[in-house]
C-alpha cells in the first residue's frame, strides 16, 4: 500500500514524504540541547512538508549546505560595468508570451544588471509591455556536467512578471536555426507568484524535448518557500549538474533533486523576464497598481564552478 501511494505522488510530494522522518528525528536533539529556535523551525517544517503532500504547497528548504571544496570558479559575471560584455552575452529570442524585448529595458547601476518591465505606448516596436532577456554567446555555450551554476538576484515585485535564471543545452540553438534536435531546459529559478497565495516562492523544473513526440517531457522538481522577501532582498539560486541528476539550491541549501537522469550535452545560461499578458497563467498583470512599474529584475552576479 505504501509503495502504491508513493507511485501516485509527484516527485516533489514524494520527496516531502520521505523527508518528514528525518526532520522528526532531529527534534529531540534540538530540544534537549536548548536550540529552541531551531526546534520550532523544524516543527514548522514538518507541517509545511505535509502541506506539500496534501495541498501541493511550496515546500520548506531543509537540505544540506552545498560543498564546493572540490570545485573551482571558472566563470564569473558581476555586471560591474555600464554595458553588457558582447563576447559573453547577447539578446535571446523573444519567448512568445506577449512581451516585447528591447535592449533599452536593460540598465546597469555599477553593481547590478537591471531588466525593467513596463508598458510603453510609444515603444520602438509599437505599444505593449517591454522587457528583455539575455543568453550566452556561442563562445560561452559549452558548460558541461560536473558544474555548479549560481545567480544572486532580486525578482520583480509585480503581478504577472515571470523572471528566470535557466540553462538550455546546445540543441536549442540548432532548433532556433531551423533544425529539430533534442534539447533540455533546466529552470534553476522561475518567479511568478507575486501577489498570489505562494508569494516569496520559486519553482524548479526540468524539461526534455523529445523529437519522437514533438513535445516536452517535464519534471517539476519542486516549489519552494524562501524565508526572505525575494522582491526586495537578494537570494542565490543554484543547480549542481552531475552526469546523473540536477540538484537545486537556494541560498546554498539543497532544495530538491531531479529523478529522470541528466543530459551530457553542453549548455548555456539565460536571464529573462516574460509578461504573460495574453496567456492563461498570468493575466493578473493588468491588476497591478501604476506604481508597480517599471518592475525590476535585479541581477547581482552569475557564477559557474567546475569540478
Taking pLDDT < 50 over at least 5 consecutive residues as the criterion, the unreliable ranges are 1-8, 40-45
Helix and strand pattern: HHHEEEEEEEEEHEEEEEEEE
Could you tell me the strand content as a percent range?
35-45%
Average residue-wise pLDDT: 80
Number of separate structural domains: 2
Counting H and I runs of at least 4 residues, what is the number of helices? Answer: 4
Main sheet overview: 10 strands, mixed
Helix content: 10-25%
Global outline: globular
Per CATH, what is the topology of the largest domain? Jelly Rolls
Distance between the termini: 42 Å
Quickly give the CATH architecture of the largest domain. Answer: Sandwich
Please count the beta strands (DSSP E, at least 2 residues each): 17
Strand-pairing-aware structural class:
alpha+beta
Describe the structure.
This protein starts with a helix and ends with a strand. Helix 2 runs antiparallel to helix 3. The longest helix is centred in the N-terminal third of the chain and has 22 residues. It is of the alpha+beta class and 307 residues long. It has two domains: 54 residues; 235 residues, Sandwich (Jelly Rolls), CATH 2.60.120.200. Strand 4 and strand 5 form a beta hairpin. Strands 1, 3, 4, 5, 6, 8, 13, 14, 15 and 17 form a ten-stranded mixed sheet that branches. It has a seven-stranded antiparallel sheet with strand order 2-7-16-9-10-11-12. It is built from four helices and 17 strands.
Amino acid at each position: 500500500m505504501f509503495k502504491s501511494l508513493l507511485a501516485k505522488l509527484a516527485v516533489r510530494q514524494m520527496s516531502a514524504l520521505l523527508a518528514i522522518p528525518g526532520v522528526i528525528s532531529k527534534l529531540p536533539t534540538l530540544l534537549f540541547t536548548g536550540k529552541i529556535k531551531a526546534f520550532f523551525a523544524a516543527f514548522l517544517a514538518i507541517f509545511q512538508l505535509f502541506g506539500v503532500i496534501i495541498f501541493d504547497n511550496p515546500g520548506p528548504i531543509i537540505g544540506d549546505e552545498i560543498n564546493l571544496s572540490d570545485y573551482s570558479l571558472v566563470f564569473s559575471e558581476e555586471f560591474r560595468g555600464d554595458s553588457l560584455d558582447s563576447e559573453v552575452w547577447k539578446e535571446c529570442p523573444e519567448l512568445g508570451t506577449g512581451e516585447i524585448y528591447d535592449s533599452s529595458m536593460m540598465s546597469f547601476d555599477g553593481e547590478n544588471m537591471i531588466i525593467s518591465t513596463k508598458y510603453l505606448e510609444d515603444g520602438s516596436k509599437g505599444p505593449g509591455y517591454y522587457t528583455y532577456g539575455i543568453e550566452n554567446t556561442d563562445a560561452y555555450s559549452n558548460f558541461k556536467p560536473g558544474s555548479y551554476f549560481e545567480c544572486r538576484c532580486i525578482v520583480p515585485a509585480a503581478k504577472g512578471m515571470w523572471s528566470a535564471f535557466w540553462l538550455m543545452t546546445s540543441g536549442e540553438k540548432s532548433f532556433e536555426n531551423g533544425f529539430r534536435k533534442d534539447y533540455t531546459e533546466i529552470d534553476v529559478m522561475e518567479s511568478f507568484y507575486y501577489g498570489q497565495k505562494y508569494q516569496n516562492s520559486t519553482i524548479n523544473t526540468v524539461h526534455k524535448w523529445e523529437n519522437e513526440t514533438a513535445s516536452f517531457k517535464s519534471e517539476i522538481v519542486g516549489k519552494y518557500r524562501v524565508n526572505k522577501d525575494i522582491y526586495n532582498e537578494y537570494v542565490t539560486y543554484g543547480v549542481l549538474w552531475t552526469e546523473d541528476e540536477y540538484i537545486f539550491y537556494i541560498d546554498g541549501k539543497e532544495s530538491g533533486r531531479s529523478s529522470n537522469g541528466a543530459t551530457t550535452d553542453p549548455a548555456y545560461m539565460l536571464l529573462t523576464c516574460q509578461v504573460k499578458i495574453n496567456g492563461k497563467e498570468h493575466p493578473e498583470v493588468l491588476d497591478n497598481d501604476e506604481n508597480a512599474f517599471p518592475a525590476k529584475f535585479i541581477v547581482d552576479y552569475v557564477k559557474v564552478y567546475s569540478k
